[in-house]
Amino acid sequence: MKILSKRTLLDSPVSKIVEMKILSPDIAAKARPGEFVVLMVSEQGERVPLTVVDTDQSQGSVTIIFQQAGFSTTLLGSMNIGDSLYAFVGPLGHPTEIKKYGKVILVGGGVGIAEIYPVARAMKEAGNHVTTILGARTKDMLILEQELRSASHELHVATDDGSYGRKGFTVDILRDLLVKSPYDLVYSVGPIPMMKFTALTTREFSVKTLVSLNAIMIDGTGMCGGCRVTVGNEAKFTCVDGPEFDAHQVDWAGLEKRNKVYAQKEQHACRLAAEMAKK
Amino acid sequence: MPFGSRNGEEMKEPVKIKERPAVERSATFDEVVFGYSEEEALQEASRCLQCKKPSCNDGCPVGIDVKRFIAHLAKKDYQASYLTIKEKSSFPSICGRVCPAEYQCRKACVFTKKGSPFASERAINIHFLERFVGDFGNQEGIETPAENNKEFIEKRVAVVGSGPAGLCCAGELARQGIDVTVFEGLHKTGGVLRYGIPPFRLPRNILDFEIDYLKKYNVKIVTNYIIGKTKLLDELFREGFSAIFLGLGAGIPSFLNIDGENLCNVYSANEFLTRVNLMAAFRFPEYHTPINVGKHIIIVGGGNTAMDAARVAIRLQRIHGIEPSTTVFYRRTELEMPARRLEIEHAKEEGVKFEFLVQPVAFSGDKDGSLQTLRCLRCELGEPDASGRRRPVSIKGSEFDTPCDSAIIALGLQANTMLTNTTKDLKLDKNKDIIVDPETMQTSIKGVYAGGDIVGGEGTVIEAMGMAKRAARAIAQYLKDKS
Asked: For A240, B36, B323, B454, which has the most beta carbons within 10 A of its beta carbon?
């Protein structure tokens, strides 16, 4: 559970994204694309689920990439090479079904780009034609562009402000691609609105679409049910039934609300931490 | 001290247990029941009639020789008393606190009125005596004799899960000189004893003591390790484990499957209790896991978990300075509640309210998706069902709404299939529980044994330990036969 390496992928005033390699040979030997780990920074910590981005079996390491979005991820970001996590367990969830679908589009936004990376590589290796669409607010906030370029046959970028690639959203590029030719699968990870609009768009074209959801979890093993999400009018546990689901069946509004259930508590903890840091 | 007499005049009154007063305890997680002093234990033990044909022993799921341990206790031979219990139960300090004695040994006590659904008040307080003896044994460091069986040299057994079944099996095997490794998926050991049972019923020092005790026998404990995910059963065998015990526990919480159940602040009892007991959410933000405490908390269910959740909930309200409003909604009446009577009484004393004969039909919330209201139907009791309890029948047109901003669903659990899904050849029943030979607890895979809630659904701590003991015996025999 030792941190072997740490790299800042993005450090802007509004967002900080960090990559870490964690020593965990047994998880490295087992983890497949689409699976996740649960970690704790300290004994007092929350249990935080994060997608396995990569593994290195010779080094026995598992790569995670996270955005310092709240109290626990900021704490995680403050850890350094040589420090040990309190807990690191996995791999959890079902792996992505990797096979030859034909033509696959991967849509990643924000830190979700890290999560489509292992899937892109595996899909390409399985003989699919891989088209990747990346979205970011602005050019400087785009991560892993080179990595995804080499894991894809085609790569498109959309930025909100038009500072790089096409001005607009990933879904605009997606629509253009779907209009031009048929695709067999769309796979998307990113902010909920992005995944929601991806699903709405692909539904029009009847393309099978998978999303990997980021519900709030505790154990990650099916024990608590805190991560439940409505999929096709049925309650599913993101941890043991997912984390991937049919995007056309997901109750996005419900998920978005459940993910904000501790927003106030989170702000309170962050405020306290900031005050402590000042002292 | 002479044993009690059945003659009316000489019949002694049961020795009441001392408890932390409700006002004092219900804003803390301190233990509620104090336990007997030596004097009280002796006095209570002296009430035992030492029946020629004791029925209490049969009331115990693991067959503790109740009569004998009380006899030793009454003679102040606490060590003999402790070892008598230890013959059958690994953790008397835990069982003395969490066993539903009024449905088990105490119900079988000769003082219980015939046909009573649970123990009469006059029944000997066997569980309090067990607790006294268990705590004595722990404090005095009485050790159950370890055996160093040469046959078991270099025999390794893997125990999956560190709940009651796993801990018990590990202890039994290690005591015979077997090299045992316990694998636990969570970051802390104890299983339901830690994430489920609140500290005011089972103080963490008692639990830690019992777990540390295993380490004396060189039991190795590996946390954050999920057999079935991090490593498969086949790999454990390949790495040199000769046998495996599966004490996986019951896993997946059941829900009502009604409208609005995925609204914010609708918790499963497992989630609610795990946040508080395991993750210490009641100490947020010092501990980082949050919990939302409502102004009107409703618990759905009538079992021990419902009582635990209710008693935790009302404590959280008090700790957060919220006027206590915690209500248990149950489909039947108090008589049919499967919870321990003591827990029901404690919950009432602490201010928990009860609404009987009600059936939830829908939750509704505000625009942010937060829970606001629970809609229910009133029920009446109909014919008895398979469990022998009268079936609740909802009354048409009896809908009513109750304000509710936190709900906790305590309806029991279904099998977790994380390991069983990845282990082919492991035979499961229709509930996805593991099928075992009831004598040996061996599964359909040779060398793999199972016990506790993953076998036969939700039971008690003591039942899980009973299965684990049987499995341990069979595993020891299996290892002997193998060598």
From this structure: B454
Domain with residues A103-217+226-258, CATH architecture: 3-Layer(aba) Sandwich (3.40)
SS3 B193: helix
Considering the domain architecture, whether residues B403 and B260 belong to the same structural domain is answered as: yes
- Mean pLDDT score, B293-310: 96
Question: d(Cα B216, Cα B210) in Å, to the nearest integer?
Answer: 10
Whole-angstrom Cα distance, residue A129 to residue A107?
14
Residues A195-222 have a mean pLDDT of 95
Closest CA to B395 of B369, B377, B407: B377
Packing angle, helices B38-45 and B66-74, rounded to 10: 120
Residue B83 CB neighbours (<10 A)? 18
User: Does the distance separating the beta carbons of A260 and B368 come in below 8 Å?
Assistant: yes
CB contact under 8 A, B280 and A44: yes
- Residues 270-299 (B) with a CB less than 8 A from some CB of A: 270-271, 274-275, 279-280, 284-290, 292
The angle that helices B341-349 and B304-319 make with each other, rounded to 10 degrees, is 20
Split into its structural domains, chain B has a count of 3
pLDDT digits (tens, 9 = 90+) for B44-83: 999 999 999 999 998 898 889 999 999 999 999 999 999 9
State residue B9's pLDDT score.
Answer: 44
Write the residue in B261, B265, B285 that is nearest to A268 by C-beta.
B285
pTM: 0.93
**HSE-up of A125 (CA within 13 Å, CB side)?**
9
**Strand-pair category, A3-11 with A16-23:** antiparallel
Residue B3 located in a structural domain: no
Mean pLDDT of B437-456: 93
Residue B1 confidence (pLDDT) above 80: no
Of B356, B377, B411, the last residue of a domain is B411
pLDDT tens profile B197-206: 999 999 999 9
